[in-house]
Amino acid sequence: MKLIATQLRKLIRSFLICTVLLLFFASFYHQQEVQPREVMFKMFTSIDRINSLSFRLKKKERVDGKLMFGEQEVKFNRQPKKIYTKILAPNAGVELLYIEGKNDNKAYLNPNGFPYTNLSFSPYSATMRKGNHHTIHEVGFDYIKAIIENIAVKSEKNFDQIFALEGKVMFDNKLCYKINIDNNTYKQTTYTVKKGETLTSIAYKLLLSDYKLLLMNPSIKDYTDVVEGQEIKITTSYAPKTTLYVDVATFLPLVQIISDEKGIFEQYEFHHLKLDPFFQPDEFSKEYEGYHF
């Protein structure tokens, strides 16, 4: 009986030790869980360190009340800015090439059809903007970084109420943090146009969507159709709700879902993303093998 009692005491003691250790490690693990603030800080840092990118972009943008799908192959170099894009859908085969400081800072366009010749357009021209929320200058992650950073700074005191980590998800065979941003400071207000401003320059300055500003002001015909002293409707920030899938390995926002009062306003997915790939010296030129300029 004494032997049984001794063994029982040892079992109870071992059980208690295991229980304490499990509670300790559970507490330790909980303390080590990443927080939304840390994910955002690492995302901002990772974006700042980018030198070049290549990826397949799949996008949805609300145009004329309908979500329009697009897909394109993209090559991006940050300094100096160089961008090559081949459209896969719609208008398959169209190519764009932009080289900072070249061609009067216009983009080369291969229309892959009529008028069967290469063209050049300003990235801000009506032709380049038609059916698109953004210009070629917003390719990559810099603009979304500026938008989210602006929300983070403005909501510093309420950061944990606005930014939430909703667990992890898989995207493009990559494990990602899912971040939801519910921006309760978002609202409509007014703005008085300054000398020389356009809707695009106002949007850049205030980190808004110029496409959204155009929708909000139906009397304005295009992005340049404003004059000094004119009062226009704007929003206080880019969007009331944003969802990001931030790659656990690279801390880059591979999925960006931006919603407004009507639902999804725009959605961008970065597939097959390569960070800082090597580009051939002539890869951002019209003469590069495989291009059709």
What can you see in these coordinates?
This protein has 293 residues and is an alpha+beta fold. The chain has a domain at 38-186 and 237-275: Clam (outer membrane lipoprotein receptor (LolB), chain A), CATH 2.50.20.20. The chain has 7 helices and 13 strands. A hairpin with a 4-residue loop joins strand 2 and strand 3 (82-89). Helix 6 (199-206) crosses helix 7 (210-216). It is globular and about 55 Å long. The N and C termini lie far apart (93 Å). Residues 15-32 have low confidence and may be disordered.
Instruction: State the CATH topology of the domain at 38-186 and 237-275.
Output: outer membrane lipoprotein receptor (LolB), chain A
Secondary structure tally: strands = 13
Fraction in helix: 25-40%
Taken in chain order, the helices and strands follow as: HHEEEEEEHHHEEEHHEEEE
Indicate the radius of gyration in whole angstroms.
25 Å
The percent range for strand residues is 25-35%
The appropriate CATH architecture of the domain at 38-186 and 237-275 is: Clam
Q: Please identify the top-level CATH class of the domain at 38-186 and 237-275.
A: Mainly Beta
Overall shape: it is: globular
Task: Record the SSE blueprint.
Blueprint: H1 2-32, H2 36-48, E1 52-63, E2 66-77, E3 82-89, E4 95-99, E5 107-110, E6 119-121, H3 126-129, H4 142-154, H5 159-162, E7 163-171, E8 174-182, E9 188-192, H6 199-206, H7 210-216, E10 231-235, E11 241-247, E12 253-260, E13 263-275
